[in-house]
Design brief:
Blueprint lengths: L2 E5 L2 E4 L4 E8 L6 E8 L6 E7 L4 E3 L7 E6 L4 E6 L8 E9 L5 E4 L3 E6 L1
Parallel strand pairs: 2-11
Antiparallel strand pairs: 1-3, 3-8, 4-5, 4-9, 5-6, 7-8, 9-10, 9-11
């Protein structure tokens, strides 16, 4: 069983920056994908950014150029650096780990709240 724990959320003014971290414990096999999703009230959960065990990253259109995902392969941790934050970035952010054939096995953290004041 893999445990996923997020940290780093909080309140920030528009235009500011925030960094989210995701720590994992347990056995994570390769290949795998680690990523961040977010969900605002009344909206569906959406991909923010993800990075594969090979280091390939992809981003949601709304955050491209503003957010950067990185990983520590030795520790199986992933970080999301968020800059130029906007009010519409306000959401609960969840860390996700996918592994196994077809990414059928996945684990979620409990989420961390990010609130951007305008």
């Amino acid at each position: 069983q893999v445990q996923v724990v997020e940290s780093g959320g909080g309140l920030v003014q528009a235009g500011g920056s925030l960094r989210l971290s995701c720590a994992t414990s347990g056995r994570i096999s390769s290949p795998h994908v680690m990523g961040w999703y977010r969900q605002a009230p009344g909206k569906q959960r959406e991909l923010v950014a993800a990075i594969t065990s090979g280091g390939r990253a992809n981003y949601g259109d709304s955050v491209k150029g503003r957010f950067t995902i990185s990983r520590d392969s030795a520790k199986n941790t992933v970080t999301l650096q968020m800059s130029s934050l906007k009010a519409e970035d306000t959401a609960a952010y969840y860390c996700n780990v996918k592994q196994g054939y077809g990414w059928q096995v996945e684990y979620w953290g409990q989420g961390t709240q990010v609130t951007v004041s305008s």
